[in-house]
Specification:
Elements: E1 10-17, E2 23-33, E3 38-50, E4 57-59, E5 71-78, H1 80-92, H2 94-101, H3 104-120, H4 128-134, H5 145-157, H6 159-171, E6 178-188, E7 208-217, E8 222-230, H7 239-249, E9 255-258, H8 265-273, E10 277-282, H9 287-295, H10 297-301, E11 314-327, E12 340-353, H11 355-377, H12 385-394, E13 395-399, E14 406-410, H13 412-419, E15 424-429, H14 435-444, H15 447-457, H16 469-501, H17 509-523, H18 527-534, E16 538-544, E17 547-552, H19 557-566
Parallel strand pairs: 6-9, 9-10
Antiparallel strand pairs: 1-2, 2-3, 3-4, 5-16, 6-7, 7-8, 10-15, 11-12, 12-15, 13-14, 16-17
């Protein structure tokens, strides 16, 4: 029985090979002619072509609709701020390092959240989805609460990606970087964060804390790596893991700068035995430090000891062989585990004296002793350990007769001895360096305190805002990436300010006048205010049947000069 004729058309495909090897692919619609009993072509349309040597079809460009001249697509976005942040991510290498360390999806989401925090001034994440509508970000889909919660969990568990990013940032430092090491605390009400414990709270709000340890490059002025620990771990015992992490970063001859919170004989010995260079502030009340101060008093009195960049300070350096003792953990080379051994290492003791600090310290000392004296005379009996130590050392208490009146005096001999060391502060290092180079490196360490202030105040980092430790790790890492954006942009703005202060012969009078306006403008604004200023720049894109068009908000000459000196090209 013959097949029944339905009269329907058939959609098929025809391929035609050209002399150059390209294959053109056509979509062909055919039908059956009952009279001629043959199949004929109803219509044929070119779908695309397969280029010679490839397998994939390259689609043809769609034709513009005829007779239709209206608007087909329009977008308007705030691009001034986002163009600056995109430039920061590209020039700093942060975007490349994040994408090389994580999957493309996680990297795009992370960079989007990081840019949102710095661009919005640290707004909370529930506002991100609406902010994203008018600000183009690397991740084009909506970043809802579910999206960023899942992101933080995945990143927090991906320690390989986190450490790879730290190593990538460290590789950009070059040889002999100077790294500041310090900690801050994050307060929380949460009972789900297992690392939130009662310890020294640097914000003084009485809450449980999580400790955040950070390595910061003082020369590059950007954060290198971080770790979190339970809030009850003292700073002084936090250094050992950091030394191990430094080996993973593969840094060449780093110098680690710490505050006196990390000073101890054990820590100095750890640095010395691992051949890691360190520079740390030490307490001048330590006996061997006081001996060094006494040995340098004459040198500090001379004019040649004056600091070239701060005449209010005098400084001198004395090398010394220092004895460290430790109990062996392993038996090796005829030495038995548990034995006490002594190790000698050369240290460089940098002693500084400031008359201004001496006067301030003595005044505070006098006020403190008078206050303690008044409290004792008022029959107060409970004191802190440090207060009780001062009472025992600098005050004398006696009573006249049986049950007589309490008389409180001063131990002038001990007070005079203590005042001998007011105004002195001491840095100790195991690396040979000039007296005032050591002071400069230590002062640059203070930038890490500004880093913590930015992280807490401008990047929504004052509270964990997550339920679980893994999510907190991912959230803090994303904040760390945002912190890299902030530090790099702040450094570049400083470079623009330095350029404005240079007097060059090729500068015209009109340019000098414009630079003066720009200099005053930058001086009156914070980084957040500068970004907010450029957030008003909008780009409109219109697509019509006859072509595509785009335009951006106009800007004044001063703003254009700022972007030019910064190196940003607004798209």
């Amino acid at each position: 029985m013959a097949k029944q004729i339905t009269g329907k058309t058939h959609v098929g495909e025809r391929r035609e090979k050209r002399p150059n090897g390209d294959i053109y692919v056509y979509e062909r619609i055919t039908a059956y002619n009952e009279k001629t009993r043959k199949t004929y072509t109803v219509s044929q349309k070119l779908k695309g072509k397969i280029k010679s040597g490839t397998q994939e079809i390259v689609p043809t460009r769609p034709k513009k609709p005829k007779g239709e001249k209206g608007v087909t697509d329009v977008t308007r976005r705030h691009t001034g701020l986002t163009d600056i942040l995109e430039w920061v991510g590209k020039v700093s290498g942060i975007d490349d390092d994040v994408r090389a360390s994580f999957s493309e999806g996680d990297a795009a989401k992370m960079l989007s959240v990081a840019r949102y925090w710095i661009g919005s001034g640290g707004n909370t994440l529930p506002r991100l989805e609406s902010w994203q509508v008018m600000h183009p970000l690397p991740y084009s889909e909506a970043i809802t609460e579910d999206v960023y919660s899942e992101l933080f969990k995945d990143v927090g568990r991906n320690e390989e990606g986190v450490q790879r990013y730290f190593s990538a940032r460290a590789a950009r430092l070059g040889e002999s970087p100077v790294l500041a090491f310090d900690s801050t605390t994050i307060s929380t009400y949460s009972e789900n964060q297992s690392e939130a414990r009662r310890g020294f709270n640097k914000d003084g709000d009485g809450l449980n804390t999580i400790k955040l340890l950070t390595l910061y490059s003082v020369n590059a002025r950007e954060p290198m790596a971080f770790a979190k620990q339970p809030g009850n771990i003292p700073d002084v015992i936090s250094i050992e893991n950091t030394l191990t992490q430094l080996k993973c970063l593969n840094l060449k001859k780093p110098l680690i700068v710490t505050d006196n919170g990390y000073y101890s004989q054990k820590n100095m010995m750890e640095f010395a035995l691992r051949n890691v260079k360190f520079l740390t502030l030490v307490d001048p009340n330590i006996i061997w430090v006081r001996d060094t101060v006494d040995a340098l008093r004459t040198a500090l009195a001379g004019m040649s000891s004056t600091c070239p960049f701060d005449p209010s300070i005098c400084g001198a350096t004395l090398p010394r062989m220092h004895q460290f003792s430790r109990v062996r953990q392993r038996s090796r080379n005829d030495k038995v585990a548990g034995e006490k051994e002594t190790v000698s290492r050369r240290l460089y003791v940098h002693v500084y004296y400031s008359p201004d600090n001496e006067a301030k310290k003595e005044l505070a000392f006098r006020k403190d002793l008078l206050e303690l004296k008044a409290q004792i005379e008022g029959e107060e009996s409970e004191f802190t350990k440090s207060a009780q130590k001062k009472i025992d050392k600098y005050l004398t208490c006696s009573r006249k007769g049986r049950g007589g009146q309490l008389k409180v005096g001063f131990n002038d001999k001990a007070i005079v001895e203590a005042k001998k060391y007011f105004g002195y502060f001491v840095l100790v290092s195991n690396k040979t360096m000039d007296t005032f180079t050591a002071l400069e490196n230590y002062r640059l360490r203070e930038k890490i305190e500004e880093l913590f202030a930015v992280q807490k105040g401008r990047l929504d980092g004052a509270r964990p805002r997550t339920w679980y430790p893994d999510n907190l790790r991912g959230r803090q890492f994303t904040q760390f990436v945002s912190l890299g954006y902030h530090c790099f942009l702040a450094k570049k703005i400083k470079e623009v300010q330095a350029k404005l202060e240079k007097k060059e012969p090729e500068k015209t009078k009109s340019l000098i006048k414009l630079e003066k306006k720009l200099k005053n403008w930058i001086a009156q604004r914070s980084l957040a205010q500068i970004l907010d200023w450029f957030d008003c720049i909008e780009t409109t894109k219109v697509r019509t049947a006859i072509g595509s068009y785009r335009w951006s908000t106009e800007s004044v000459a001063r703003d254009r000069l700022f972007l030019k000196y910064l190196g940003v090209e607004i798209k």
